[in-house]
Amino acid sequence: MKYGFYTALGTPLDENGNFIAGSFEKQIRQQITAGASGLLVMGSMGIEPYIKNSEYTKIAKTAVEAAKHACPVFIGVMDNSVSRVMEKINALKGMKIDGVFATVPYYYSVSQEEMKNYFTDIASKSPYPIYMYDLPAVTKAKIQANTAECLIKHDNIMGIKTGDLGTARIISRSPNKRNSFNIFFSGLDIFDFAYRSGIKMNLDGMFACTVGIAAKMYRTLENSDFQQAAAFLDEILLLRDTLAGAGIFPAFTYAMNLLGLEGNYSPDYSVRLSPDQKEKISQCMKDIKLL
Asked: Which of 3, 43, 270, 279 could form a disulfide with 200 if both were Cys (CB 3.0 to 4.6 A apart)?
């Protein structure tokens, strides 16, 4: 593990929900060439809950083979029970991956004690390291800092992805934290501030369509040129806000397609973009020199 940007990859699918391997391989090559520190496959930007069971193992295997050990590869295993998560983990058997990311269950409300049971059980059964994925906007239940502090005592729970800087700070200073436990900060709006605060492993799906800008941002952060880094981050945020204004997943699909990465990166029921929305996205990408 090293400092820098970790990209939550988009997952390209055809009109029938089948995986487009060539486009995915191209995306991975772009990320590695640009210097991504690691890759998350089938995270939230990679629409893991929407992917057909028949495609799940294919996607993970393609990622491992395309990355060729150039950087760590993590696989999303988000689901609503220990048994369903373990079914996904078992489908990865034999693959040389660096860990799996799991949110808390997201169908019914989950208490903090239930979270502890959930992650502890998965970590005890999994042959791969477990990374907690704190995503309260989706799961409706936040992994509280004291819950995370309890869970990091487990030897096979190796990290957390969180957008809460306060939680990240508490965990980083916890006496329970092992040196091998990693914090992936996902609060895109303040990545530069978090980096200056010592939280230097940042993970986000926007890097999938802004990898050139992300690479420049992290080079300037490493050189302590924080003003220029902030300017690069502002470009990523401008595109993020433009995509969100049109509907994040169909807009992300359009942006990826403009970059030469074919496929649908959104749920199959997503509303299509209007010509005006497409024009705004295209113009934004030209303004920040992605096109």
From this structure: 3
